Every structure is written in structure tokens, then in C-alpha cells.
Amino acid sequence: MGADRFLVIGGDAAGMSAAAQTRRLRGASDLAITVLEQGPDVSYSACGIPYWVGDVVSDRDRLIARTPHEFAAQDIDVRTGTRAEAIDLDAGTVRTVDGQTLGYDHLLVATGGRPLRPPVPGLDADGVHGVHRLADGADIRAAVAAGARRAVVLGGGYIGLEMADVLHARGLAVTVVLADPLPMALLDADMGERVCKAIGDMGIDVQPDQPVREIETDADGVVRAVRTDAGSYPCDLVVLGLGMGPEVSLARDAGLRLGETGAIEVDRTMRSRSHPEVFAAGDCVQTFHRLTGEPAHVALGTHANKQGRVVGSVVGGRAARFAGVLGTALTAVGELEIGRTGLCTTQAEAAGYDVRAETIEGTTRAGYFPGAAEIAVKLVSDRGSGELLGAQVVGGPGSGKRIDVLATAIWAGLTAEEFAGSDLSYAPPFAPVHDPVLVAARVASRAERG
Amino acid sequence: MGADRFLVIGGDAAGMSAAAQTRRLRGASDLAITVLEQGPDVSYSACGIPYWVGDVVSDRDRLIARTPHEFAAQDIDVRTGTRAEAIDLDAGTVRTVDGQTLGYDHLLVATGGRPLRPPVPGLDADGVHGVHRLADGADIRAAVAAGARRAVVLGGGYIGLEMADVLHARGLAVTVVLADPLPMALLDADMGERVCKAIGDMGIDVQPDQPVREIETDADGVVRAVRTDAGSYPCDLVVLGLGMGPEVSLARDAGLRLGETGAIEVDRTMRSRSHPEVFAAGDCVQTFHRLTGEPAHVALGTHANKQGRVVGSVVGGRAARFAGVLGTALTAVGELEIGRTGLCTTQAEAAGYDVRAETIEGTTRAGYFPGAAEIAVKLVSDRGSGELLGAQVVGGPGSGKRIDVLATAIWAGLTAEEFAGSDLSYAPPFAPVHDPVLVAARVASRAERG
Fold first, then answer.
1. Contact criterion met (CB < 8 Å) for A407 and B424
2. Which GO terms describe its molecular function (chains A, B) (predicted)?
3. How far is A242 from chain B (nearest CA, A)?
4. Chain segment B204-224, per-residue pLDDT in tens
């Protein structure tokens, strides 16, 4: 009898975390681990691509956390350039496009995400790029190096804003075209307006409320402009910043059930709900919101890593489960830092809460300390119980990471009043004597009473 | 009949927070508010004094949050330069040194703290300074301006280290003389060693394990050196950085009971335990540790503000109580950031926990992102329950404020494992995909199992 076989489809955050964690718990004589990755790289940072494009990080290889060679040293057999074509759940095999058939005892589907694409003509034109694989980053870098002067970014989520920021910093004229009225759709309108104004002030053109209708191309099929109902925006580069959907074609074809978000339905141990003998993790799965229990799809490396680790623990024989998401997100555009967590007002209302929302303004450091920057903090809470439901921060340097304090308070189920009493640090270079997050909590807890 | 009378002794954080909060709840026709302050200023930032000395903040008045004039506009009668000499609890009056006798219906004792002084000869020499009143800052600034070249800082708490840092930055040769083996006594030894090495590398001389024996002076009574058993450290400036004790002479003489910390015993509504008709708040009171319930004395503006606010609410007719302290503290020395919260290992052991402590090293940003700095995170937890008890961080820019995330997790009573699953933000300019605080929690939660 040979060793038990663990086969992983997809070699980025979820897949490689699972492989590494399993190996920590089970040696090579006990378990063979094979990873199939269609691309040339594993364990790369898709989130780092904007910074590579922006030349903030100049070396592509810095975005790669670990190479197949490094995994090989742990007896993890990583096969790059190897695309899985079909899963046969009955036979317990995976067929690759190059004709191999691999058997498995444990299977993980970690096929990741794919950039969302608006259903418009011209999207396959030369000059239209997603922000997903390192090859996308290389293509955009090449376009900039070749003299691209005008870029249109479709979508104002964090990837879209980061790309707008770095392309603007590299000297391109940048227009962000939004289907929504404001960027960062998971911010409340008052906070989104702060973002919109700030990026406009930086010289980035924002065109809201304009679903894209067509990518216009020249005779050679090269992008020439982006057309909306309101106008046509000339450009030589289009970046898709509309977010990521789950890549589920392999799973769907194999018969794994998809949830209402379109991603693979899994339980908290990351087992497929329709086929518990198969694991799935990362950007291809449907997860759940910590507060509401509702299904959610959030494509983010941090969740993928944790979910992969859960799979690795379970395959390794140790109990583990994924604890859900709050939808915490953080980004920077120039010096502006934007963070959010939990439910925004509309989400909280939809979930049936009696919503109280308050925004306060403060400074990141003692007001007299050099570098004190403006910060706005918004808290969403339940009027009846006082429970904190969501938080948003927009401000200068030092603002963004404060979202983690609020995410922790929400994760722990604190009320605004309980959190308002908490013993957060105070020192003039780091905070005013009343940290803005506590001021926000105090205002929210006072609001509850009155 | 006149209005009800609220008399406040001491016009800094606790006193003025109480006065302002009371006024928000009760108008001037209903309640007269009088504040007696012995010094020239109210509502000033003692924590800002090091940065004024360091010329990081050049204008003294920037350290003053609000002036007596501004309070007067709210019908709060602030009498600076007015020292209370005695409280007559039976008569319900306070006598001032200039011979006034003021009656009250509600009394708040907010006499603050005083710099701790070692019991050695020479401490009253010319050139020895506390870091307490703005006048102290002015004196030290004047000494530097007059050409002081060598400074000895007694004590390595945060005020001591901040003063060492700013004096060093202003070109003085600085020696920190410690009675303890390491600076920052409320850090575990391994973390204290990181601090000690880093400040030594900056060129600040640290002399541990040397209780001071004498301040040597010249014939004119001017400081000349600090002598310990190991040597004599020549200097023309001595700074007391030994921490703050409670200023309780007025309260003690009036018969208010002091606790084992030497500070005024109060309940959670900030009423004196021996005389519940009297409130006390701020650096002069004994508070309690959130985790252990044990008495604690922590002189810090953030607590003083919150406690003063509790008093103001109660006098204003609204229920309120102080929720305790974790001992959260944060400081910077050069680019080094140092934070702590909750119980350190020795405190946790003394409190009867079965202590597990683990330190991890990581980076503040994605490893490939410019400005990624080293950070060490230590977590103290209870081996049996997994409950988080304490946390310490030492590292480069971006490290320090992470202590707030840990303070919130501890405040909420999370276990290491519960916290390890939490949805903290990830973006390359702000954090690695595994934030170091989560890596620490994961290691701690794994340790619990093994």
C-alpha cells in the first residue's frame, strides 16, 4: 500500500496554505501531497500587483512568497503549468489537460477567482487588463513602459482605486468609471463621498453613475475609449477593477453544488455541502458573515489562507473550522486610508437591525503633534441592544489600521458602550487622549440612550 | 435658595472632564460649577511635555487643550492659582490658602499625581526636574537652551524613555539609570531586552541594576553628577522618570481612606469608599484591573478623562461607572514603538494563572513592501482556558498602535483561538497577509493544545 494521497487543485493562498499545514501534521511517508497549478507561479500576492505596476515594488519575484522548489523541500509536489480539466468524483480522479489522470484520497478545490467583466462589446480588445495573475501586472507595466498616457479604470472597489492611484502616480491621466454613485460600494454614502472628493482632489477623474456600454477599439482591435451613456473617455489602457467572482467551472462540471453567491457551498470545515468528501477553499467558495450568518463571497487572501489552513488541519487529523468573515477591507489611495468592517447601514437594515449610525471627526495623533491627520470614523450599531455592527474609517496616515480595533470589537460582540470604556493606548505621537474610535463609540452609546 | 454647587479641586484631565460633562447635563441655573487649580493652567497635556522639550512641538500653548476663558463661556468658574488647603467634610466646605472658604453640595477631589522621587540626598539640587507641570517643561527647555550637555534620566518607564529620546535628539549625551535590570518594567524580560538593545544602538547609554544613591552637587547646589554603587555619571541635568504617585495629602488630611496603592479608594462610580458623598478621580485614585479585579494605580490622562466623565455623568443625574484598566501603554523612542496591555508574565503568575507566553517576529507590512519594519508580538494567555491575558509589541513604525487590537481582544475576554480567527484587515501597505497579531494568536492557540 502506498501513502494516502492529498491532491490540491490551485496553488495560490488557499491551496498552498492547506498543503503546508497538512505537511506540518503528517509526514511524507504517511501522506503524499500534490498541487496542480495552471499558471507559472504559486503563492504569489495578487494584492501586490498594483504596487508592482506602480513601481513601489520593482521586482516581480518579491511578490512570490514561496517557490515550487521551496515547497519541494517539504515534500510537496507542485506541478505548475498543469491545468486540471475534469474531476471524476465517483472514480476519485482528476484529469489534466495534458492527459494525466491523478487519483486522490483527499481533494481540495482551490481554483480561486476571476476578475468580473461587464457584459459589453470590446472587452477582449488589446489593452484591456484584469488585475489577477502576475502576467496581468506584467502586461500593464509593459503598456505603461510603451507610453500609455490615458487609463480608464472600470470600478471603484479597492483594486480599482489602487490601480487608479498607481497609474496616476506614474503620470497617466486616469479616469475611474463607476456604475455606482460612489466608489467603495460597501461604505455608507457619507463616507464614500469623502473618498470621492479626496481622490478627485488628487487629480483622478471620477465619473459616477455610468455603467460602461462599450469598449471602443481601433481597426487593429486596440482599445481607444470607454463609452458610457454620458460620454466617451479616450484611453490607451483599460483596467478591470470590478472585483473578483469565484472560478467554479471545474467544480460545477464535477457536480459540486454552488450557493446563491455563485461560489461553491461549503460547511465550516470547508467540506463541500453536496459532496463532503471534497474540500474547497479560497476565492472559489461561499463563506458566511459572522454577524448575520448569511452567505457571502469575499475574495481576499487573508480568508483564503485561513480557510486553506482549516483544510490542512482537518486532512492532518486535527479539528478546525472557519469562523466567518466581517468583510473587513483596507486600502490606501495616495495618503488617504480607507477601511471598513462588518455591516454598512444598508446591509444592517437589510439584515433586520434597528440601525443607528453616527460619524465623528477627529485626528490621528494629539492635535498639537506634527503629522496629526484628519480621520472620520463611522459606527453602525443596533439601537436596541447597542451591539456594534459595522465600522468605517476614512482619513490620513494612521487612520486605516484602526479598523482592526473596531473589527475586533465587532468580532467579540461588544456593544458600543462596552467598547467605549475599553483601555486603548494613548500617547501624543499615536493618538489624542480620546482616540477617535472611542469617541465614535461614546457618541454611539450616548445615541442609544436618547 | 441658590443653585446646587459642584466644587472641583484640580483642573486637569479628570477635573475638567467632570466639569464639562456635568455642564452638558445640567444648566447654569440648576448647578454652579467651580474649579480650584493651584497652577496657572488647566486642561494641559503633561504627556506632551517631552515633545515640547524636544521641540517637536514648539509652542507651549499648543499643549493646552482649553483655557479658563473657554470654560467660563460654559459657565464653569475656573480659579487658577488657587490652592485648596483643607477639606472639612462635616461642614461641607473647602478652605483655600488665600483664606477663602467655599461650600459645596458635590465635591470632586482631582488632585492628580506627583513625580516619584528616590529617597536620596541632593534631590532638591538645582538642575533636577520632574516631568509634570508645564513649568517643568519650561525649566528643562531653559536648561537645554543654556547649554546643558549631559543629562541623566532616572527611570526607564515611558516618560523616562521619551525624555531620554528627545534630549538625545537635541544633542545631549544621555544616560538612563535604572534600578531595575531593564527599562519598561511592565514588559517581560525578552521584550525589555529588545527595547534596551534598540535604545543602546541609538546612542543612549543605559545603566541597569543601579539604584541611585546620591545626586552630587557643586558648592552652589547645582547638580554635578548622579552616583550609584557602580559609578558616578557626570551631568548638568537630571530628569525624574520614575513614574507618578498619587497626590493625596489633601484627601488624607480630610480623612478619605487610601487603598493599598496609596491612592484614594473609590467605587466604580468614583465615590470615595469611606465617604461616598465625595468623588475622586484621575491620578489621585486607586482603580482596579479589568482582569483580576485587583487594586491598581495607573496615572494616565486617558483614565483620568474617563473617570472624570463618570463623575460628571453621576453629578449630572445619569448612571455611569468606570470599567477598569488593562494597563495599556504606548510610547516611541526614535523609530522604535513599544506597547503593552493587560498582564505581563509575572503579573499573570502572581494572579494565579497557568501562564503560557509566546513571542513571534514578523513585519508591519507585506515583506516586499517598502517600509516594512520588524515587529515582535508577545501574548500572555491562560493555558487552561486559552483566555488572552496580556500582550506586548516592540518594533518599527506601524507596530505600536497594534496594541489596541490586542487590548480590545483582552477587554472582550476572547481566547487566543477566538481572536486568531478574527477578520483583521489585509493590504500590502499595512500588513502581511497574516497580520503579526494574528500569527501570535495562532501560535498561542496552538500552544494551548500541545
1. yes
2. oxidoreductase activity
3. 17
4. 999 999 999 999 999 999 999
